[in-house]
Design a protein that fits this description.
four-stranded mixed β-sheet, Rossmann fold, alpha/beta, elongated
């Protein structure tokens, strides 16, 4: 049938109605999202993409919309061109982030997680996950995401959890996972350790205190309260001011503990007085100095951010800032503060709750990044050669087996990996993958006949299930710690996939992600893929722009600068929203968001709609009124290349072919913004403004064939960018063969 917008004798619609179209069209697409779809022609080539799993912490943001739109363009383009495509979707449990939002919700109800207990609290988190996980999926569908929902995964699904346990045990048996007491970055609010990558820094107006430790030594510090845990004063060995003092001892003020003056190359001679206090248990750098010089570790701050008994009776139980004020008062009475000056510095805060980080001495689990104890159990060739996890990533980048695009981000990742530290993978929260670590009960009750063997009882065992002691009747209790959420998400390219999918779609073709998680996620997926699959999980990583406000500020709901993509979809439609996002994605620079681009997308959709109305009237003409079936059949149009006699006909056909090649080139180079701009310019200016205007004075069959051919051609080109309106229009065209645009090839 022709393009019928009329209902009975009513006037045809003059603008595109997205609300009445999108849900209906999306349902008609869903059977084609699977690679086993009959409509998936296939050329023996596959194309796979992994959706970076959104956190189940709430609704989508503009970053998700940009990422999903880019991926959908690639999937739709390759699906249309006969590839066996699959887009693996899913969501991430997001450990500490999700726990925080659920705790926040509970506080509104006057309840804490401690009131509920672990089991009931986790049940509450699952309720949250089920609610918002489903909302996120529906939001992605609203945007037009053509992912295979039958392959939906969650990072705490049973099959996924098995992979997480397997990975931990594998690394442990290989000697790459170990337990150690180290100074870690601790969030007193979240009550857990954090990795370096989970810390943010904000500029703070602080005070720098010059404190007289002896007649010869004055130290500069922004944290006078931590002096209660000092184990030494350190100076640079090249600092001539203190050369004669190295090796001597002084009395630590307030505490009256004798501490040494030591020399260390890590000390900056230009900071403050050039002499610094060393508090090994409460500073990451100081802990390294402490280990080098075998200094004692005095823990004076606990996990709650309060002073311990080791800080002294008069300070025990005080909050850190309270202790600071009291220490300053005592020092002033003792006339030991020589100078106080304003000082700006970067304060470390938790990336989730914004609480000040406290470096604390803590028992934690670490994944060894640079070292590599050999193991006979490894089956990966690179591992037999003794390649560390760090070197795996560096080698993959250097060899070009994985390329980071744009190239400047590859250097960023390389620099970080070259200086990477062992990864603290344990977290002291409740929501997440519990460590497969079991501790023997303190008391041993020997089995009959094994009384002398209880010395063989293992204090700790690593096992996917509760182990049994061979020698006594004691039980094992599982560790309360959970794994860093990035440990499980590092397995995303393969965990939970079927054997068939791993065979067909591993590695995937490209990973699309934001720059802020290159080190958190990308690097870890690379070495995980190499370790467990023997191959890098993707040959290319595309780093997309960050969407900022129009003024260039970070988008944030809490700051009132965030924009909900669903509000845009409700107001303008999914196509217009996708148009506005990609229209502004020019090059690698960040996007300063301008809603005017979405408004332009809405206007363009209406323009396309009216172009189609004109072409339909022109193509149909009087033939639509003829009653015999043969005439009706003759009105069906072919999208084969028509003959062209006139110059304007030859020109428009030639330019359409040029546009196809340019669009293909732009998509292959991930230049989505330029691709959309070129298609837009052709449709609006070359086709509508020029050729359609010329066609109005012609009634020959040739111009009708060309109008139809060009319309079908631009619908194909535009479909990956604006899928809903292009599918709607295509379905209404007088086609020879009934088929969906979603699987119609550009050249077919």
């Amino acid at each position: 049938m022709g393009l019928y917008f009329e209902s009975m004798n009513q006037e045809p619609e003059k603008s595109y109605d997205s609300k009445s179209t999108e849900d209906r069209i999306y349902k008609s697409w869903e059977p084609f999202f699977t690679p086993k779809s009959k409509a998936a022609k296939g050329k023996g080539k596959t194309y796979a993409i992994l959706l970076p799993p959104p956190n189940v912490t709430g609704s989508l943001h503009m970053g998700h919309a940009l990422n999903a739109t880019i991926a959908d363009i690639l999937i739709r383009y390759h699906r249309m061109n006969g590839y066996k495509t699959v887009w693996f979707p899913g969501t991430d449990h997001a450990g500490i982030a999700t726990q925080n939002v659920v705790e926040k919700q509970l506080r509104k109800e006057g309840v804490s997680r401690w009131d509920l207990g672990r089991e009931k609290f986790i049940a509450k988190v699952w309720e949250w996950k089920n609610k918002y996980g489903n909302i996120i999926i529906e939001q992605l569908k609203k945007l037009g995401v053509s992912a295979d929902w039958s392959r939906l995964r969650f990072t705490m699904d049973p099959e996924y959890a098995k992979w997480v346990q397997k990975a931990f045990i594998h690394y442990y048996e290989k000697g790459l996972i170990y337990r150690g007491k180290r100074v870690v970055s601790w969030c007193p609010r979240c009550q857990t350790s954090l990795s370096d990558l989970e810390i943010e820094y904000k500029e703070e107006n602080a005070k720098l205190y010059d404190i007289k430790y002896s007649d010869d030594i004055t130290v500069a510090t922004t944290r006078p309260e931590t002096m209660l845990g000092d184990a030494a004063v350190a100076v640079n060995p090249k600092d001539q001011r203190y050369k004669k003092l190295i090796g001597k001892k002084i009395q630590l003020p307030i505490v009256n503990r004798e501490i040494p003056i030591i020399a260390d190359d890590a000390i900056d001679m230009n900071f403050g007085t050039g002499a610094v206090k060393v508090t090994p248990a409460h500073d990451l750098l100081d802990s390294e100095i402490g280990e080098r010089h075998k200094l004692p570790f005095y823990q004076i701050i606990d996990e709650r951010g309060r002073m311990t008994a080791e800080a002294g009776k008069e300070f025990a139980g005080l909050k850190v800032l309270e202790a600071r004020e009291k220490v300053i008062q005592k020092l002033q009475k003792m006339k030991l503060i020589e100078k106080i000056e304003d000082y700006k510095h970067n304060l470390a805060v938790c990336y989730r709750c914004n609480s000040t980080i406290e470096p604390l001495l803590s028992d934690q689990w670490f994944l060894r990044m640079a070292g590599h104890p050999q193991s006979q159990k490894s089956k990966v060739k690179s591992q037999k050669l003794g390649m560390s996890l760090r070197d795996m990533v560096l080698n993959t980048l250097k060899s070009g087996k994985t390329k980071i695009l744009p190239e400047n981000f590859e250097k960023m990742l390389t620099d970080w990996m070259e200086n990477v530290k062992d990864w603290c993978i344990s977290r002291q929260i409740w929501w997440g993958h519990q460590l497969p670590v079991w501790f023997h009960e303190p008391k041993c009750v020997p089995k009959k006949g094994h009384e002398k063997e209880i010395v063989k009882c293992k204090e700790m065992m690593v096992s996917p299930t509760e182990p049994k002691c061979k020698y006594c009747g004691a039980k094992f209790v599982q560790s309360q710690d959970v794994l860093d959420t990035w440990f499980s998400s590092a397995l995303w390219p393969f965990a939970g996939l079927s054997k068939e999918d791993l065979k067909d779609f591993y590695p995937s073709n490209v990973l699309i992600t934001a720059r802020d998680i290159i080190n958190l996620w990308v690097a870890r997926m690379i070495f995980s893929g190499l370790e467990f699959m023997g191959k890098t999980p993707f040959p290319e990583v595309l780093i997309h722009a960050t969407i900022l406000t129009k003024e260039g500020k970070r988008m944030s709901k809490s700051l009132g600068t965030g924009i909900d993509p669903l509000e845009l979809i409700e107001k303008y439609g999914a196509d217009a929203t996708r148009f506005g996002i990609i229209w502004q994605a020019m090059g690698t620079q960040d996007i300063h968001w301008d809603e005017a681009a979405v408004q332009a997308g809405k206007k363009f959709a209406n323009k396309l709609w009216n172009i189609a109305r004109y072409v339909d009237r022109k193509v149909g003409g009087s033939k639509l009124d003829v009653g015999n079936e043969q005439a009706k059949r003759s009105n069906k149009r072919s999208d084969r290349t028509p003959n062209a006699k006139f110059v304007e006909d030859k020109t428009i056909l030639k330019n359409l072919e040029r546009l196809k090649k340019e669009t293909e080139k732009n998509i292959a180079n991930y230049e989505f913004g330029p691709a959309l701009h070129e298609v837009y310019d052709f449709i609006w200016h070359e086709f509508a403004d020029k050729y359609i205007e010329l066609s109005k004075s012609r009634e020959d069959e040739e111009v009708k064939n060309i109008l139809y051919y060009i319309l079908v051609g631009i619908l194909k080109l535009l479909h990956p960018f604006m899928p809903f309106i292009t599918e709607e229009l295509y379905q209404k065209l007088p086609k020879e063969k009934e088929e969906m645009l979603i699987v119609k090839g550009w050249s077919r």
